[in-house]
Recover the amino acids of this structure.
């Protein structure tokens, strides 16, 4: 079973405004409003790839019904803990004329130590050595920066494989727990290593440095520049050129879903990278995070370009 953990869920609202400018009044077109959060987006794509997934995490008590109505399916099992307050709203303004995206992030609920203990007990009861546990996203107010580290170490006791995609101190602490895989972007990797990556060779060296610390797979997303991934098997860079990009929100989560599914199916890093990049690119072709089409994933998989770095 693939299990996603989203500590800081969100509601994604996408608005479309042509020739958007600051300080002006516009009539926007509401493109989509969906329950989200990085782990929720991962769960959607895992389902699209044909796997069952359990989605754990926290949600504002007033939005519980919205999440269940929109997400509960035969393959997605929701197991969210309601907390006081609202789930945060993330708004993306897409300008189809100027080809820009503007992102507005709002604060959300606050959690307590009791909430975290509840989540840890729930997760501990559900996981086994056969499971893949995906920890992704920012942490909410009230959570200590070491929260992912603590949860990953607990999963190690159960011998479950863990994947981490976060940022800031939560990522830095999480890497210390040596999850099976981490998926930073370029800036986050530079922050972890406290050094600048000026070339593919520099990036490959940074990836290998994280590998030597005990992380089996390191996958670094670089947006339109592609994705680089490394393990003891080697380091590769993969990319695909898109003719038209609709919305990049959630593409990193789709990438992560492809990696998680590949790991669950026993594939090596190179195959996982190929599926992950195809999923991330397919997500950029649609409006709405984690709503990519299986047909696009399969078509893009055939168009991928791969280069071995070392």
């Amino acid at each position: 079973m693939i299990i996603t953990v989203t500590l800081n869920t969100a509601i994604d609202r996408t608005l479309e405004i042509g020739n958007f400018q600051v300080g002006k009044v516009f009539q926007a077109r509401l493109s989509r409003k969906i329950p989200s959060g990085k782990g929720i987006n991962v769960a959607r794509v895992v389902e699209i790839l044909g796997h069952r997934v359990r989605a754990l995490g926290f949600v504002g008590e007033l939005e519980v019904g919205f999440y269940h109505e929109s997400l509960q399916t035969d393959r997605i099992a929701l197991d969210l803990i309601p907390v006081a307050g609202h789930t945060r709203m993330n708004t993306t303004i897409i300008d189809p004329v100027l080809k820009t995206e503007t992102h507005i992030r709002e604060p959300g609920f606050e959690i307590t130590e009791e909430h975290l203990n509840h989540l840890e007990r729930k997760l501990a009861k559900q996981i086994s050595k056969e499971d893949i546990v995906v920890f992704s996203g920012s942490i909410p107010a009230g959570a200590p920066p070491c929260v992912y580290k603590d949860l990953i170490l607990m999963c190690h006791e159960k011998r479950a494989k863990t994947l981490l995609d976060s940022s800031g101190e939560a990522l830095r602490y999480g890497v210390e727990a040596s999850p099976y895989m981490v998926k930073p972007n370029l800036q986050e990797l530079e922050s972890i290593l406290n050094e600048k990556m000026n070339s593919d060779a520099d990036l490959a060296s940074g990836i290998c440095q994280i590998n030597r610390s005990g992380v089996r797979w390191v996958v670094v997303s670089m947006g339109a520049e592609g994705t680089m991934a490394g393990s003891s098997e080697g380091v590769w860079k993969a990319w695909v050129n898109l003719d038209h990009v609709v919305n990049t929100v959630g593409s990193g989560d789709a990438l992560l879903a492809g990696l998680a599914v590949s790991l669950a199916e026993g594939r090596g890093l190179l195959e996982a990278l190929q599926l992950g990049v195809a999923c991330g690119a397919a997500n950029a072709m649609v409006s709405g995070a984690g709503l990519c089409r299986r047909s696009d994933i399969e078509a893009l998989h055939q168009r991928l370009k791969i280069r071995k770095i070392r």
The chain has ten helices and 14 strands.
